Amino acid sequence: MRVVIMGCGRVGSSLAARLSTEGHDVTVLDVRADAFRRLPSNFNGKKHIGNGIDQDVLARIGVGDADAFIAVTQGDNRNVLATQVAKHIFGVPRTLCRIYDPIREEMYRELGLETISPTVMGANVLHGLLSEAPPAGEEA
Fold first, then answer.
1. pLDDT of amino acid 133
2. Residue ranges per structural domain of the chain
3. pTM over 0.70
4. Topology of domain 2-131, CATH
5. Which phi and psi angles does 97 have, rounded to 5°?
6. How far is residue 63 CA from its own chain's centroid?
7. Which residues of the chain have pLDDT under 70?
8. How far is CA 136 from the centre of its chain?
9. Can you state the angle between helices 102-110 and 76-84, rounded to 10 degrees?
10. Helix (H) or strand (E) segment spanning residue 122
């Protein structure tokens, strides 16, 4: 599978490393060259400096040939815009978008974007843990 990941922070670099190890063709895009330091030394994918909301940049890295585009920068607006461009202009079949703001995440999901909100996921996990009985030997 050919995957383009926009954002080489903790999540983007971890996902890129994992997909690369699994044998996928991975391209990582970030606006800062120093972000690529998070990738492991054995990363065999491609690294490009550029902004994923710039159609010329996306064309240059071949996003139209990708099977998936994943936007995981710190900016909700950039993630949404880049995902929409990849999906609607370049026709990428699978686009995933991280959105921190739960209200906006829900709205964009209802508009047809495949989204994830770490805020909602984290709250759900913590709620689930709180609802469980404490481990044996520990007081509630």
1. 76
2. 2-131
3. yes
4. Rossmann fold (3.40.50)
5. -135, 125
6. 15
7. 137-140
8. 37
9. 10
10. helix 118-131
